[in-house]
Amino acid sequence: MTNILISGASIAGTTTAYWLRRHGFTPTVVERAPAIRTGGYKVDVRGAALDVIERMGLLEAVRARGTDMRHATHYDAAGHPVATMDADLFGGRTGDDAEIMRGDLNELLYDLTRDDVEYLFDDTITGIAEDGTVTFERSAPRRFDLVIGADGVHSVTRRLAFGPEERFRRDLGAHISISTVPNHLGLDREEAVHAAPGRTANVYSTRQDPTAKALFMWSSPALSYDHRDPARQKELLTEAMAGVGWEVPALLEAVRRSDDFYFDSVSQIHMDRWSRGRVVLVGDAGYCASPASGQGTSLALVGAYVLAGELARHGLEGGALERYESAMRPFVEANQKLGPANLKGMVMGSRLAIRFQLFMIRLLPHLPGRDRMIERVAGAIHRAADAITLEDYKTVE
């Protein structure tokens, strides 16, 4: 087994391509977008995922491109600051944790693979036969020994091999939207946050970025819309945030003009198994933990490393896919549990809950047990981030 197709040039896809190449396989990556995706939002890399980054020789580069966020300030509806906290505490980061823009990380991963991995951009798979023959929207059919779905929560690969998305997606009762907007608040490595019952707005600017990111999250039942219709999605966002004060009206107006727009439900993917025949899933396609978990990127990095390593060590006939799942399942479950728990603190249902959270933020610096309080906030995330022991898979290159 040598020829492997990876669907999706995501974090999971590019990382899988890197490790497969290091183990002597010949991976091909197909990506619907016309080029590597460089936009997105800031993501955290923790625990075992940091070990993967270090083994790829990227740790120094990741830290060099770190967001360098300093603090997060909460504002009331009239624009008055009401509470400020350290950015690392706000993001649940301690110790060696790294924060980087998702596009920057994907660009670093792509640069590691672009010279010795075949990339098929502006294309997507349309069918997978039992003998491994894959049909594409644009390219001619080709046969592969294995197809790896690394194409996200709305995975085409998963739909073709396992069935409709609705069978596996669990909505957590919220939606999220992120856009690049002008930095009209003059933010410098800081976050500005406003919370209303059931709705939260956050705008931030990272190091060496003249623009800002506007992030909205709100409680919501399942919505019916086309995932490829940003105009309708922007309408749904505007409807959801109607009547919220602070800078929200100005941010919504900026979002309407933005061509860098992300909108989706806050959801998880739960599956009884991640492989079927010649198809296996990695990252969000198989076990999305939701943006609320803060661990999606780490799951993608670790999953890609383990999958490639098990394929190299055991091969398909030796049970590699079963071993991959056995190694990853407890890690995935620990990190998926974070999503619903974290979401409660990100979108609060009442003004009383908001006032209590702000009170605790103001009180925290003055508490004698401050470090223990921080550990309570970040401890669950780090226990989940370290809930796997990585094997040392020997590479051939």
From TrEMBL:
InterPro entries: FAD-bd (IPR002938), FAD/NAD-bd_sf (IPR036188), FAD_aromatic-hydroxylase (IPR051704). Residues 2-334 form the FAD-binding domain. It holds the Pfam family FAD_binding_3. Keywords: Monooxygenase, Oxidoreductase. SUPFAM superfamilies: FAD/NAD(P)-binding domain. The keyword Ubl conjugation does not apply. GO terms for molecular function: FAD binding; monooxygenase activity. PANTHER family: MONOOXYGENASE (PTHR46865:SF2), OXIDOREDUCTASE-RELATED (PTHR46865). This is FAD-dependent monooxygenase.
